Amino acid sequence: MGSDGYVPLFETKKVKGRVIYRLFSVSIFVGIRLILVYRFKCIPREGEDGRWVWIGLFAAELWFSLFWVCTQALRWNRVYRYEDDLPKVDIFVCTADPMIEPPMMVINTVLSVLAYDYPTQKLSVYLSDDAGSEITFYALLEASHFAKEWIPYCKKFRVEPRSPEAYFLSISDPNDVKETKEFVAIKKLYEDMENQIGRAAKLGRLSGEQQSKHKGFSQWDSYSSIRDHDTILQILVDGRDPNARDIEGRSLPTLVYLAQEKRPQHPHNFKAGAMNALIRVYEKISNGQIIHNVDCDMYSNDSQSVRDALCFFMDEEKGQEVAFVQFSEGFKNVTKNEIYGSSFRVGMEVEFHGLDGNGGPLYIGTGCFHRRDTLCGRKFDKECTNRWYMKNDPRSEVSLQELEAKSKVLASCTYEENTQWGKEASLFLTFSNTGLKYGCPVEDVITGLSIQCKGWKSVYFNPETKAFIGVAPITLPQTLVQHKRWAEGNFLILLSKYSPAWYALGKISFGLQLGYCHYSFWAPSCFATLYFSIVPSLYLLKGTPLFPQSSSLWFVPFAYVISAKYSYSLAEFLWSGGTILGWWNEQRIWLYKRTSSYLFGFIDAILKSAGFSDQAFVITAKVADEDVSE
Ligand SMILES: *[C@@H]1O[C@H](CO)[C@@H](O)[C@H](O)[C@H]1NC(C)=O
Ligand SMILES: CC(=O)N[C@H]1CO[C@H](CO)[C@@H](O)[C@@H]1O
């Protein structure tokens, strides 16, 4: 470790005792020289017995000497590289509703990230359960037992993907894998766990026996409802604990369950609030330098993703500028022709790459790796490095109970009052400097924008094998509601203090400003679309021409623009891996969205910013809240 308190991502150490080795090596060298001198001097005269044997021996020794010199190159200057100093990575998994997001789905995501190919002592996983569901806690407890078998199994047989469900689905016949016996055993174990959890979920409560399995369940004694309960915090696996070992005796990643305190009279700010509570709590527990966040419906499909992301952060040229690395997402639930156009194909394959060229993609709330300092409001300056400050383990010398008690306070609903955290749920006001931004239905996008405005860059990474796979909305209403939220949120950003149009002026590149505006303009573009879809057809009935006759020369630009634009759009869609029918569906849905989602999004945004409606809530098919069902 350098005297200035940081260590590089990996460390290069010169081997100890080099001087001694070199002295030793020189002594051998001298010895060899002497041997050669002896051979040369004492060659038998011509005609004497054994002259040629002697010369042969001399040649052989000469050869060996040369060879020896070469071997010295392999020993003279040895360095050893240690990966020990990889930064600590903390993974936040967010869930909000055990009905929409069944506990089995949540723990599959958790297990897939627990099994990342990364040193387990450097990995911690936090599950933020905004519903504070006892069943989810129970599922996580079961998953922590299963992980003791699952992690070694994955690492031993290099299993991909590491979400058990996806893995077992991908293998239809146990005889297809080499390790048939182990496969059958682990699958059985998984199914037992699934049955147990399934039964509990169906009943909606736990039996006394299940509750007696862990002292953590006592925290539900004071639980009155999903919107009214104490902070629930439980460190299920403490990575430092010498007893927390997998079946092969290796350490396990730390695993923490957190449900922030909720009281009816306090806003809890949904996902952003949960993330901010997590950020405060994790500082006391693991305090890693990288925060990785995934939604609970999005499992990791590639165990190497952490290392992939670190490549960008540790890059010698540009690494110090990178605030976050956003991965693309894949969807397992879309049909071949994407009937609701919900895979965001062109966005992922084309548009985000365009943003990346202008300074970095948006932060889309999942599948993202953050430099922790940037989430805590750090500005980019010359002192930022691609090296990682070594933080002392915050846990040292504190018992687990004390640690839990200390951390719990940080997730209470009054903690944020009069602090720099988050900020109230209203627009046009000063967003604070710390944590994720509140008051916007797309808290992720506005958070990413504010980070970029502080001088940071972001990186978009879209590997061939999708690193994260989630579920897309599978019904038309879900699709439309999701787009209403996005359109409304992005439009609100335009009106907010953090507007990409003026706040960002001069802070981010002009191209990136326009890129953000593109998303912000979704909502208002409903009017032009509605006008175009209604008025010309009415006038057609009246017989008033609004477009040039096909015989007129003015017809050419219209025909050209329309046909060229559509051909390009089709080509782009096909190039992104879509189908012709998929493109057609996308066009269809595009019209639906523009005439409904965007219109409602626009109206709601205006009402909200005029102060008529203040329920700034988050709706997603993934993270939803009680009010959503309304
Ligand atoms: C997910 O990972 C598996 C295994 O590596 C791979 O075969 C599959 O193509 C990946 N899925 C996607 C959508 O990339
Ligand atoms: C989680 C989820 O919605 N799964 C659905 C994905 O789509 C297939 C059909 O395409 C359904 O069978 C799954 O239930």
Automatic annotation (TrEMBL):
Cell compartment(s), UniProt: Endomembrane system
Pfam families listed in its UniProt record: Cellulose_synt
Keyword Glycosyltransferase included in the entry's annotation: yes
Record InterPro entries: Cellulose_synth (IPR005150), Nucleotide-diphossugar_trans (IPR029044)
Entry keywords, A to Z: Cell wall biogenesis/degradation, Glycosyltransferase, Membrane, Transferase, Transmembrane, Transmembrane helix
UniProt key word Acyltransferase: no
Main location: membrane
Domain of life: Eukaryota
SUPFAM superfamilies per record: Nucleotide-diphospho-sugar transferases (SSF53448)
Transmembrane segments annotated in the record for this chain: 20-40, 52-69
Name of the protein in its database record: Cellulose synthase-like protein E1
Species of the source: Xanthoceras sorbifolium
